[in-house]
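Suppose you are handed a protein chain with no further information: no name, no annotation, nothing but its sequence. What can you learn? This example shows the usual starting point.
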Amino acid sequence: MEWFDDFDWKICFPEQRIYLMRQHNWAFAAWEIERLKGALDARSLLVHVDAHLDDTPDGVFVPGLKEAASVEQLLAVAQGHDYASGQVCPPDAMQIDNFIWAAVARGTIGETIFVSHQEEDVLSLAQIRQEAKQKRNENCQRIISMLPFDCAYTDERFWDIESFLDGFDRERLHRGRTVILDLDLDYFNVSRGEEAQLLPDAQVRDYLKALRELFPWDAITVAISPEYCGGKQQAAHLLGLFLESFSLSLAEGQKW
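A reasonable first move is to predict its three-dimensional structure. Written in structure tokens, the prediction is:
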């Protein structure tokens, strides 16, 4: 399990435009690389399926974020922090919970559909603007200053895949914009405690099949997040179910 010990482990399947990664911060780089190639447009729709919302806005402050214009520069911007090393996280680093707002700041993401059972509410652009205006919150003002001048980022929230599939207006996927599926395998660990509680395999397979067939996604990013899946074995099991459901083999993936 090479991916478990290497925080920078990531492979892709170029023909399917599917990117696998240990740490979720690399999803930012995948989206931006696909945009660089012309496969993704500005203001794409992101469907984010995750145990966590990953809506921390300080991703807008990552050094070099706006200037990055090559694959190498994008990878440097997306470089995360190995929190298992015990070292202090550098300031303004790309992390596993702030990469979405980083892509909003670059104008790559225009709307996010959150599918998550995390208890907190989603942080919206309207909330940040309200904080910046009414309370003169300097941090919120700084966040607004890092966004495109015409930023109209929106979001919608569903608590689970079932309610998303039942309640989402699927016509919104066909409105002339590119669409990204962003999945964290820790979604399938429903435990609130330290001991993992994975959904039954049959249910995981059904959800993965439904997501796969929902739309001809323009890009798919998948984070393994083993610590949040419950550990190495649980993450490996969920990864196997994903690979099976999407007819992929790790041996055929390309490092990026």
